[in-house]
Design goal:
single chain, 245 residues, alpha/beta, Spore Coat Polysaccharide Biosynthesis Protein SpsA, Chain A, seven-stranded mixed beta sheet, 8 helices, 36% helix, 17% strand, globular
Length: 245
C-alpha cells in the first residue's frame, strides 16, 4: 500500500465511527482543541464503518474544513476490529492511537500516554472512576478478568478506548473479529512492551452503545479460545540481513 498524507505527521488518531451522528459535532470540537496541544504533530483519521444515520456525511464536511482531518469510508459495516485494522493499514505516521466516537474519554489524555512510547510499544488507558452503570461495569469486570486469565497480558482494562502504539507493531496485528479486545496481548506476542496509565472517563451523553450482554461477555469468552489457539501458532520473526536494498 502506498503511503498517504498521514506520513507527514508523527501521530495519527484513529476514530472508528458507526452511527454516532449526535456526537460528531462535539468530536470535531474536542479534536480541534487537542491537535495544537498534542505533544507531537498529529492528525485525525475517521473510519466510517458503514454508518446509516448521516455520520459519514458529517465526517466528510468536517474533514473539508479541517486540514489535519482525514477519513476512510468502509464499504459496509464490519465492526470495530475491522475499522481499527483498516485504520492501522492506512496509517503511516510513527505512532498511532485510537479513541471511540462516544466521547466517554478525553482527547487531552493522549498526552498522558504518548511520553511512554519511548519505553513501550503500546500504552493503554485505564478508565478511572468509570461512569457506566453498575451492570455494565460488572459485565466488563467479569470479561476483563476472564480474558486476563486466558491471555496472561496483565491488563486490567483492555476495553478502555484510549490507546497509543508504535505503528509498525499495529500493522502486524493479525486480523480477526474481536481483535480490539486483545490489542495488548497481540503486542506482547510480538515481544512488545505494554504500559497502563489511568485516564478520565465520562458518561455517554448522546447516541446509543453498540454493546450488549452478548458482545460484552459471551463473544469475548469465545474469542479467548481463538487467541489461545493462535498464540501457540503465532509466527514472530526478525530478518538479520538482506541484499534487497
Amino acid at each position: 500500500m502506498e503511503e498517504n498524507a498521514t506520513n507527514r505527521y508523527v501521530f495519527t488518531i484513529i476514530v472508528p465511527v458507526y452511527n454516532e451522528v449526535e456526537n460528531i459535532g462535539r468530536l470535531e470540537e474536542k479534536l480541534q482543541h487537542f491537535l495544537p496541544r498534542s505533544l507531537c504533530p498529529a492528525c485525525v483519521l475517521f473510519v466510517n464503518d458503514g454508518s446509516t444515520d448521516g455520520s459519514g456525511e458529517r465526517i466528510h464536511s468536517i474533514c473539508e474544513r479541517n486540514p489535519h482531518f482525514f477519513y476512510l469510508d468502509m464499504k459496509e459495516n464490519g465492526g470495530l476490529s475491522a475499522a481499527l485494522k483498516a485504520g492501522f493499514d492506512y496509517c503511516f505516521s510513527e505512532f498511532v492511537g485510537y479513541m471511540d466516537a462516544d466521547m466517554q474519554t478525553d482527547t487531552d489524555d493522549f498526552n498522558l500516554l504518548l511520553p511512554h512510547l519511548v519505553d513501550y510499544e503500546l500504552v493503554t488507558g485505564i478508565r478511572a472512576d468509570r461512569k457506566d452503570s453498575f451492570f455494565k461495569n460488572l459485565q466488563s469486570k467479569i470479561a476483563n478478568g476472564y480474558r486476563r486469565m486466558m491471555t496472561g497480558d496483565g491488563v486490567s482494562d483492555t476495553g478502555c478506548p484510549l490507546k497509543v502504539m508504535h505503528t509498525v507493531y499495529a500493522k502486524r496485528v493479525p486480523m480477526f473479529n474481536g481483535m480490539h479486545r486483545f490489542l495488548p496481548a497481540l503486542i506482547l506476542l510480538q515481544n512488545g512492551r505494554i504500559q497502563q496509565i489511568p485516564v478520565r472517563h465520562y458518561p455517554r451523553m448522546a447516541g446509543k452503545s453498540k454493546y450488549h450482554l452478548w458482545n460484552r461477555l459471551t463473544g469475548p469468552f469465545i474469542d479467548c479460545f481463538a487467541y489461545r489457539w493462535m498464540k501457540k501458532r503465532y509466527i514472530n520473526y526478525q530478518v538479520n540481513n538482506s541484499n534487497l536494498g
